[in-house]
Amino acid sequence: QVQLVESGGDTVQPGGSLRLSCAASGLTLDSTAIGWFRQAPGKEREGVSCLSNNDGSTYYADSVKGRFTIHRDNAKNTVYLQMNNLKSGDTAVYYCAADPLDAECTILDGIIQDVVMDYWGKGTLVTVSS
Question: In DSSP terms, which residues pair with 80 in a beta bridge?
C-alpha cells in the first residue's frame, strides 16, 4: 500500500522559511515523478513544483521561482520543499503527489499537471501571517 505523508507545515511571518517533507512508503520516489501542489481557501489546486526522476529536472510555478526548491533524499525516500521568503499568498494546504507511471513531470503550457498524479498525501497547512 502506497502512502505519502507530508509534514512541516506551520504558521510563519512573511519573509520566513519552512521546509516541507513528504515521506513515502510502498513506493520508491526515485522512480517516479513527484510534485508539490497547494490549495488555498476558495481557490483551485495549483502545481507548485515537480521533480522528474529520469533526468533530475525540476519545475516551479512562476509564483514561487527563486524562492522554493524541491529535492529528494533517496536514503530516506523523502522529498522536500524548501520554501524561503514566504508571502501571504503562499498560505495554503500543501500536498505531495506521485505519478508512478512516469518518471518525468507532465507540464502543459507551463502548468504542472495534477491529473497524472495517482498518489496523494493528506496535506500539511502552511499559514503566512504577521
Answer: 21, 71
80 phi-psi bin (left φ>0, alpha ψ -120 to 50, beta other): beta
Cβ 70 vs Cβ 53: under 8 Å: no
Which residue is associated with the grid cell 521546509? 19
Instruction: Say how far apart CA 9 and CA 30 lie, in whole Å.
Output: 24
Per-residue pLDDT tens over the stretch 15-56: 999 999 999 999 988 889 999 999 999 999 999 999 998 888
Residue with cell 520566513: 16
* Residue 31 confidence (pLDDT): 84
Strand 68-73 vs strand 78-83: parallel, antiparallel, or unpaired? Answer: antiparallel
- Residue 102's pLDDT is what? 86
